[in-house]
Design brief:
This is 3'(2'),5'-bisphosphate nucleotidase. It comes from Pseudomonas syringae pv. actinidiae ICMP 19096. The radius of gyration is 10 Å and the shape is elongated. It is built from 2 helices and no strands. About 70% of the residues lie in helices and about 0% in strands.
């Protein structure tokens, strides 16, 4: 379950991209 703070991040898409890159590394 994602935290409300995480959902409220304006760079939500950017964070998701970072997580995807880290997962692929």
């Amino acid at each position: 379950m994602l935290n409300p703070f995480f959902l409220a991040l304006p760079a939500n898409a950017a964070w998701r991209d970072k997580l995807l890159v880290l997962a692929q590394s």
